[in-house]
Amino acid sequence: MSRTLYREVYEALRSSIESGELAVGERLPRDSELMERFDVGAITVKRALTLLRDEGYLSRRPRHGTFVVSREGGEAPPPAPRPGDQLIGCVLTDFDDTFGTRMLAGLIDAAQPDTSLVVRRSLGDGAREDTMVRALAAAGARAIILQPSSSEFVPPAVLELITRGFPVVILDRVYDGLPVSSVCSDNVTAGRVATDYLFSLGHERLGLISSDSEVSTVRDRRAGFVAAHAHHHVPHDPANEFRATRSTVPGSYATPDDDVRALTGYLAERRDLQGVVVTEYHLAVLVLEAARELGIRMPEDLSIVCFDHPGQFFDRGRFEFTHIEQDEAAMGHTAFELALDLTRDGSRVERVALDTRLVVGESTAPRRPA
User: Fold this and answer.
1) How much is the mean pLDDT over the chain?
2) Bigger pLDDT: 338 vs 26
3) Which domains, from first to last, does the chain contain?
4) Coil vs helix vs strand at 106
């Protein structure tokens, strides 16, 4: 009989959460109120709430109550911080050895003995991003570090937190027009440095290859590419830009083969290109594949500079692109320290742009005489 009762309480509360009647971030009524509402005992209510917590719908904050953290469940709530600890929430799109892993290491290394860092992955899903931010805030996070999937769409939860003066740090991106702190690389200068290097090798007809992504990093790298053309008094031809690759965009259904076919067409129509700037490593690998299909040799016929690169330590035979190296560890470390600072003074807004450096690899060479 008791099992039936606790399942009835569980299902009623779950239905209220999934319908939005109990909103994410809302505190549940006290246990005594739930006992009166469902006409059950304390043990029945406790079993129902425990099940909802285990399924990721609720999170209990000592001395504050039980809060709704997700309308869909399926994800365990963030662990409660130890007494006296500060909980810092972090939502990343994703990470791998090319970009993100070292940034995550910087975040972890910056965590202090009296802080708890909880990391979530959105996989580029804006709705999931919004849910995760709400869940972390409801779980008692003192600050949120967010690597957003878009620089144009701001999750409603983030807007609400910014409006309340809640400490938020945007990581590896910027939100133009919003009073919110951010930590990222100086991508405009980095884009210019990459392009300047190709010009210094004697290349003049340059292309730009990027993903179809609405993030400030891609936009800023393009701005640097265009600025370098102006600095060298070389006309910039927008027709030499290819911004339709999609396989590297989180949440896209496009495959690498789709992009290789598209890039093969792009390069075939622009045999006069002498160099290209590619805004991320994984795309550079696809460009290399497309070039080889056309018999274009790298770097003899085409020089490439990309952004980011996996470490060579365990695979010294891997082809190394000339690339822009970001200080990922410093990015993560700085973001965490800034988040902590904002918990003490949330009124200020600080935007940090970190230096990058050019690493010369095998994908670039001086222009050959005609």
Assistant:
1) 89
2) 338
3) 5-68 (1.10.10.10), 86-185+328-354 (3.40.50.2300), 187-326 (3.40.50.2300)
4) helix
Residue 177 is encoded by which pair of tokens?
A: 């027009």
Q: Pairing between strand 275-278 and 303-307?
A: parallel
- What is the reported pTM? 0.77
- pLDDT tens digits, one per residue of 58-83: 877 655 678 887 777 655 555 555 55
**How does pLDDT run across 189-226, given as a tens digit for each residue?**
999 999 999 999 999 999 999 998 889 999 999 999 99
| CB < 8 Å & 24+ apart, contacts of 173-176 | 173/147, 173/148, 173/215, 173/216, 173/217, 174/216, 174/351, 175/148, 175/151, 175/216, 176/151, 176/216
Q: 273 with 240: CB under 8 angstroms?
A: yes
3-state SS track over 135-168: HHHHCCCCEEEECCCCCCCCCHHHHHHHHCCCCE
How much helix, strand and coil, in percent to the nearest 5, is found in the chain?
A: 40, 20, 40
